[in-house]
Structures are given as structure tokens and as C-alpha cells.
UniProtKB/TrEMBL annotation:
Recorded superkingdom: Eukaryota
Pfam families: AMP-binding (PF00501)
Annotated ranges, domain AMP-dependent synthetase/ligase: 71-189
The species this protein was found in: Trichonephila clavata
Protein name as annotated: Acetoacetyl-CoA synthetase
InterPro entries: AMP-bd_C_sf, AMP-dep_synth/lig_dom, ANL_N_sf
Molecular function terms from GO: acetoacetate-CoA ligase activity
Gene name of the record: AACS
């Protein structure tokens, strides 16, 4: 095979997870082969002796788990929701487990909570190098990464990936630090996707990624750049941002607080709008078995949200639900629940537990807003 090809020579298609709608088929060029080298060999400090185990939602992983455990993995990648489940199930290593070979662990795929850092360093292994990483299908690689030579700060991803000019922009398109901004790739990169399936004139690609900030590739997520450490705090999808009582915030901020309550198994926070386009936050709680949902719990959650955030962050409505919808990649399907409670059309095809969606329809407490 002749590999002497330009970066724009087409190589493969990938598909998005369908978090915000139907999955998009993406065409990638030769440049998409670069992230494997730059991310793993350089920023993850891998060597020929490194043995990676990446837990993937595609297919069964039992055989892969057995084979990698036999060869003693050195590097571990886990989806953020798996880290959450480890904590919720209290499934921690014991003296019967040997983690001597594991040197590096990274988490991603969705928002990595600050509590995940506590879990990895306090419950899993003290001398491990753990950090959140942020990537996307459009690059087949990372945009924000760890760096072994730099300190790790709780809840942050330390640095931009090599060759990626990533910025946080405010609504006017101005780069900002210390407050919510939308993540963009500000300069061209050879590893960006070439186009979308059947988008022959490129109009869909331009509309999807370049219409909000002309000339800059919008990643569709909010983040905060720490003005002191320069690390990135990923806050979730920009289309899942809430604005209540004049305060804009991400659903992940609410989840970080709710996760402090053991009796809550899972949660989901979305916006509801009325005919005057007023907006309020609605928080759904899935209770752990044996624990009741009651006004006393609601009051405690409201109190802690005020302490950890502000009173403006308290969701106006807090309700119980039986389950939270997810897609195959372990991402909460906030956009679908948001569409349901606002009586908008939605497509349930990407929800792995779609039977729970009926629980969000015609809820009496949401009818008179």
C-alpha cells in the first residue's frame, strides 16, 4: 500500500454517538492517523512496554479484560460513567488485587467529576497518575490532555493536546478565562474531519461546526479555563446549558452536588420553557433502592446547592423519576428529556433504556409553568 498521501486523502469513516440527534457519519483523512502517535507516545508517555486497556461500549469486553489482565496492564482508560459506577457500587480493590503494574489512568467520554480524582487517589491507588482527558470523534483523538511533567489539579484537564489551539469563547466570540466559555478549535488542524457523509457541498459541515463562530471549529461543549493553573474544567454540552434567574450554569454543576447524597443513585437536570420563553431548571432524581424521595431530602439538596454554588442554581422543580436515559456511550440523554418536557419531537433510537422515556411525559408538576 502506498502511504505517500496528503493529509486530506480519505482513509475512514466514523460515527458520532448521537447525543444531540441522529448519529453523523464523518469522513477522515490521513491526518487522523496522527493522534495515536501524538496522544499516546508523547502526552501519555507510552513506551513499547506499555500495555493499554480501554473499556469500550462496543461489543463484549470479557475476552479483552481477561487477556489484558494476564499481561498486566500499565495504562488504563475508563469512560467517566464507569468511574462513577465504581464509586456508587463501592467496588474498590482489596489485598487480593494487584495494581502494581498500573501507572497511568485517564477518564473521558463525558464530564469527569472532581470526586473521581478523590476516588482514584484515595480508594484505587495512591501513586497512580490520573487525569481527565477531553476528545471528540471529529478528531479521532484528544483536544485537551494530561502531561506527565505537570501537576494534576482536582477536576481539571491540564493542557491542550499537541497541535491543537483550543480556546474558550464567550457569546461574542472573545477568548475568556475564569468563566463559562464554549470550546473551539481556533486554528486549522490536519487531524480535523474532512466532511460528513452525503454532504457533498460541505454545507452541513459548515452549519454544524463553523456557523456559531465563523472560522473556528465549535466543539459543542462548555468549559472553564482556570486563570491560575490554566487547566480546563469541562462543564458539559453547550446545548445542555441552563439559565435560571439570570444565572447561566451547566448541568454538571448540579450533578457534582447531588452526587454528595448517597441515597440518590442518579440525576438529570434540564431546562423547561413557557410560552413567554421564561426558563427554569428541573431536576430529576433516581433514588437508591431502599431510600425514599421526600421533602426533607429536597430541602437538604437545596441547602447544599446554595452552599456549594448559589441560591440561583437551585432547580425550581425537583422530582423523582424511576430511571435516567443513557446512550450506548454512557452519556445522559439530557436533550431528549428536555424535548419531552417541552413537548418537542424527539428520536429515541439512540437511548439504550428507552422504556424510561414515558416517565417524563405529561408530568402534572410541569404542566402549569
Amino acid at each position: 500500500m502506498d502511504l505517500n498521501k496528503p493529509f486530506f486523502y480519505p482513509v475512514l469513516y466514523t460515527s458520532t454517538s448521537g447525543t444531540t440527534g441522529l448519529p453523523k457519519a464523518m469522513l477522515h483523512g490521513c491526518g487522523s492517523l496522527m493522534p495515536t502517535t501524538k496522544d499516546f507516545w508523547l502526552q501519555f508517555d507510552s513506551t513499547r512496554e506499555s500495555i493499554w486497556f480501554s473499556m469500550s461500549p462496543v461489543g463484549w469486553v470479557s475476552w479483552n479484560m481477561l487477556s489484558t489482565l494476564k499481561t498486566q496492564i500499565t495504562n488504563l482508560f475508563l469512560p467517566a460513567n464507569v468511574v462513577d459506577d465504581i464509586e456508587k457500587l463501592s467496588y474498590f480493590p482489596t489485598k487480593e488485587h494487584s495494581l502494581d503494574s498500573v501507572k497511568v489512568a485517564i477518564a473521558g467520554g463525558s464530564v469527569v467529576k472532581p470526586q473521581a480524582y478523590d476516588l482514584m487517589y484515595n480508594k484505587i491507588k495512591k501513586d497512580i497518575l490520573f487525569s481527565a482527558t477531553y476528545g471528540c470523534t471529529e478528531l479521532i483523538g484528544t483536544c485537551i490532555n494530561m502531561e506527565p511533567s505537570l501537576p494534576i489539579y482536582r477536576g481539571e484537564s491540564p493542557v491542550p493536546s499537541l497541535g491543537i489551539d483550543i480556546q474558550c469563547l464567550d457569546e461574542s466570540g472573545k477568548p475568556i478565562e475564569g468563566e463559562y466559555g464554549e470550546l473551539v478549535i481556533a486554528k486549522p488542524s490536519p487531524i480535523l474531519l474532512l466532511g460528513l457523509w452525503k454532504d457533498e457541498d460541505g454545507s452541513l459541515r459548515r452549519k454544524t461546526y463553523y456557523s456559531k463562530f465563523p472560522g473556528k471549529f465549535a466543539l459543542g461543549d462548555f468549559a472553564i479555563i482556570n486563570p491560575i493553573t490554566k487547566g480546563f474544567v469541562i462543564c458539559g454540552r453547550s446545548d445542555d446549558t441552563l439559565k435560571q434567574r439570570g444565572t447561566r450554569f451547566g448541568s454538571s454543576e448540579i450533578y457534582h452536588v447531588v452526587d454528595m447524597f448517597y441515597e440518590v443513585r442518579d440525576s438529570l437536570c434540564v431546562s423547561q420553557y413557557n410560552t413567554n420563553f421564561d426558563e427554569r431548571a428541573v431536576l430529576f432524581l433516581k433514588m437508591r433502592q431502599g431510600y425514599p424521595f421526600n421533602s426533607e431530602l429536597v430541602e437538604r439538596i437545596q441547602k447544599v446547592i446554595t452552599q456549594e454554588l448559589t441560591s440561583n442554581h437551585i432547580p425550581e422543580v425537583i422530582l423523582e423519576t424511576q430511571d435516567i436515559p443513557y446512550n450506548v456511550n454512557g452519556k445522559k440523554m439530557e436533550i431528549i428529556v428536555k424535548n419531552i418536557i417541552n413537548k418537542r419531537p424527539y428520536n429515541p433510537d439512540n437511548v439504550i433504556n428507552s422504556e424510561c422515556l414515558k416517565n417524563f411525559e405529561d408530568i402534572p408538576d410541569l404542566q402549569n409553568f
